[in-house]
Task: structure prediction
Amino acid sequence: MTKTVLKALAVAAALAPAVGFAQGNKAATYITDEEVKAVNALPGVDRTIKVVDIGSENFAIGVIHRGATGGAARGTAGAAAGGAARGGAGGGASGAAARGGAPQGEPCGEQSTAPATGTAGAIAHDQQTEGYLIISGGGTLVTGGKIVNGRRSPPESEVTKVLNGPSCSGMAVGADVVRKVVKTGDIIIIPAGVPHGWTDIGDHVDYLSFRPSARVLEAGYTNPALKK
Result:
């Protein structure tokens, strides 16, 4: 796993100075395998490692851990079962998605009174594209469709500041929903606006999340675990 993680981080670091050079940025950012593991050992689900200003945009790297679902999906902004916190600040609950199956925030997505059959716990980010590199375990990643009876993430939550930006969480439905079993080493790119979530995680899945954004996420963040 170490070689896979370092290879992915080297690619990300190589992209940052290339863009930064054109914009006058001063230095590359290096994240070691040991730092990734230190952040991944923290409680929670989605832990941002760093958010870096690369000139024309900000670039965030996170490491995400999801335990066994027992068939219940978790969206990328959803808290783990039992209200476990996920936050870029290392322990703050996002408040953005399903807790006990009831997302919080303003309504979003298609609103319907008819019973919906689909994948619960999905999320779509308004502006935030994500790239995943699976570093351990696996499960079924559900992508596509549309969000029905969703709820928005709070505008000033950790989700909007250092995780995903403004997002809509709810049930993903539609004929274009794709369910794909992913494993260690697989890479997935999820464009902004595409619903996605997890189901059928047998034991766990850990993955790096690469998030370039047009300054949607706040640059300058470093996970507190790396400041000790």
Residues 65 and 206 are 4 Å apart (CA to CA).
